[in-house]
Design brief:
The protein is α+β, with helices and mostly antiparallel strands. It has one domain (2-239). It contains 7 helices and 9 strands. It has helices at residues 4-8, 33-56, 67-70, 90-117, 144-150, 195-218, 230-235, and strands spanning 2-3, 16-18, 62-63, 82-84, 128-129, 135-141, 163-176, 179-192, 238-239. Strands 2, 3, 4, 5, 6, 7 and 8 form a 7-stranded mixed sheet that branches. Strands 1-9 form a two-stranded antiparallel ribbon. Strand 7 and strand 8 form a beta hairpin. Helix 2 crosses helix 4.
């Protein structure tokens, strides 16, 4: 038996995360009004960065059908479902650089946006900085055939489609004057060699989940959270 919810985790559902903003400063000791304003500005800048990352960073799945990107699908399988990419490997480095280029464009645009809003404070510095060594990219196997079979979707040519979920995590610094706040952000998304068929599987899986949820809701009138048995709810989402 396998939970449908477990199958759903194979897909990216646009999960994102970011740390809370905490101003760190080793050299600045002023606790007066100016220091308070600086911390407020630092937090505002951090919020701008997060908002931009939420809006623009890997918002859509990636089409990976080139010969170099297609190698990615060979690195994970049922027995080895996850792999953290290493730049020491030539083929993996290509994939890392491919995603880093996409990321770098968004990161640079966000930096320039903040500089335009605070032009007097970044004459010879930048509001956001990161090191490539602080970027972690992990790929995760998506068993498309198994999902198709267990949910009885019967999608044509599913055996010809490959896909992985990509977990992209990076650490960066938010800088304002002498203040620096270390931050971390993660985004996950899918890469596939066939958008059309992959979307059919993705939609079919979500529709299956939605139908199960609606059917369950139709069987109840109300939920008393103090007495609710979560196991009974999750049992509705088991598939053979």
């Amino acid at each position: 038996m396998k939970k449908l919810l477990s199958l759903l985790t194979a897909f990216s559902l646009t999960a994102v995360g970011a740390s809370n903003v905490i101003a760190c400063n080793k050299n600045h000791t002023d606790n007066g009004p100016s220091a308070s304003t600086d911390i407020q500005n630092l937090n505002k800048i951090a919020a701008i960065a997060k908002e931009d990352f939420d809006k623009f960073l890997f918002k859509k799945d990636i089409l990976g059908d080139s010969s170099d990107l297609s190698k990615t699908y060979q690195w994970v399988n049922k027995d080895n479902p996850s792999l953290t990419l290493k730049s020491e490997n030539k083929d993996q480095k290509y994939v890392i650089d491919y995603f880093l280029n996409i990321f770098q464009n968004i990161f640079d645009n966000t930096n320039q946006k903040i500089i335009d809003e605070y032009p007097n404070y970044y004459l010879d510095s930048v509001p956001l900085s990161f090191d490539k060594s602080d970027v972690t990219i992990k790929i995760n196997f998506i068993d498309l055939a198994e999902i198709d079979k267990k949910l009885d979707l019967k999608i044509n040519n599913i055996d010809k489609v490959k896909a992985v979920r990509v977990d992209f995590d990076f650490k960066y610094n938010v800088n304002f004057k002498t203040l620096t706040s270390p931050e971390e952000y993660d985004r996950n998304f899918n890469m596939t060699n066939n958008f059309d068929i992959f979307e059919k599987l993705n939609d079919g899986t979500l529709n299956y989940f939605q139908d199960k949820l609606i059917n369950w809701l139709d069987t109840i009138k109300k939920i008393n959270l103090n007495e609710w048995n979560g196991k009974g709810f999750l049992d509705k989402f088991y598939v053979e």
